[in-house]
């Protein structure tokens, strides 16, 4: 029923606006076709069908085409273009109907729209898109998500959820510097099997052995949708707590929002976000301002930085973080860095013959090129870990370093060939003070902030080094 009511709204609404009945009927059919084609492409790459919040990201397809169009493929893109061109031709060819007919279409729209809202609210939805679309049908589930997700009730629910963040109150009692690195698509690929070399994880392994805590990390994203893991980490909120906002939480951040940055800000910290890409991507510039970051160092602050492929590499991000610490002037720093190097699409990268040998034993077959390219970037992330920990070991000011992967990479073809589907990334929380033994805890990304709070205050040894005088540092 919702499927038909939603189609009626689209068709009648388009007729009321354009006065062209055949064109309007065609638009409704083309719309379903476009949503189906894009949804299938998204599911093939990211294991998730199209959801309502993807519409708000539509403009990014044109401003950042490399991040989206390659996953669609030339064939599907051609089908979409043909459909759009046919719709434009139909609009030009068809003469507009009389005003009376357009008025009737307006009445139909106004009748069917409240029906859609009522039907959407009555559907029993799990907010697991694939399950809901199997249960209710693709278009009906998509329409229900759109109607419910964009409602004022959902915005109010998000505001209430944000107020329950564990970082909505309090401030640090001690003031070590805190660095958080969200590493793009990072996970321990050795879980795929013995064919993956340990060489790309040398510094990662060392940091884990010396860490306060480390382990596998449950994240609310797979292959993409970085901002979901990002928001969970910064707010301490789970997907069930966010409701429909789980799919694109920054879309709902329209006012002050509790976050880990706000917690540190109340303690006198300088709070800085670092991302070597465009600040408006995912709406981060607006969202981070509401989430209590004092400044946002985006791609404009990486002028001249070395690139790995199309993106700024991980090592320049490490250098930027070190520069922030060196310029802190005794004011504690909380820096949240989001890397970009390993973003992909991996299948667009060039892999040389023999390049796989130092990274895995699967060979140079085309099936494994994405894995080779991926591990090449992991090596640079590992060098980033090495550079940061080497600097912090020599630094006298106490510092906590949290490093984690936002999601596993979009390597569906590799995972299918290996008959596996990893879902967890990895993390460690490392300190340049205390005696830590790499305690393993497999946790959710939303708990990392609370673990950082514990790492700041739990010193295992006390000596004359200022790195271990945490208990005596002023708040």
TrEMBL record:
<keyword id="KW-1003">Cell membrane</keyword>
<dbReference type="InterPro" id="IPR017850">
    <property type="entry name" value="Alkaline_phosphatase_core_sf"/>
</dbReference>
<dbReference type="GO" id="GO:0005886">
    <property type="term" value="C:plasma membrane"/>
</dbReference>
<feature type="compositionally biased region" description="Basic and acidic residues">
    <location>
        <begin position="457"/>
        <end position="468"/>
    </location>
</feature>
<feature type="domain" description="Sulfatase N-terminal">
    <location>
        <begin position="176"/>
        <end position="435"/>
    </location>
</feature>
<feature type="region of interest" description="Disordered">
    <location>
        <begin position="456"/>
        <end position="475"/>
    </location>
</feature>
<keyword id="KW-1133">Transmembrane helix</keyword>
<dbReference type="Pfam" id="PF00884">
    <property type="entry name" value="Sulfatase"/>
</dbReference>
<keyword id="KW-0472">Membrane</keyword>
<dbReference type="InterPro" id="IPR050448">
    <property type="entry name" value="OpgB/LTA_synthase_biosynth"/>
</dbReference>
<feature type="transmembrane region" description="Helical">
    <location>
        <begin position="67"/>
        <end position="93"/>
    </location>
</feature>
<protein>
    <recommendedName>
        <fullName>Sulfatase N-terminal domain-containing protein</fullName>
    </recommendedName>
</protein>
<keyword id="KW-0812">Transmembrane</keyword>
<feature type="transmembrane region" description="Helical">
    <location>
        <begin position="26"/>
        <end position="46"/>
    </location>
</feature>
<dbReference type="InterPro" id="IPR000917">
    <property type="entry name" value="Sulfatase_N"/>
</dbReference>
<feature type="transmembrane region" description="Helical">
    <location>
        <begin position="99"/>
        <end position="120"/>
    </location>
</feature>
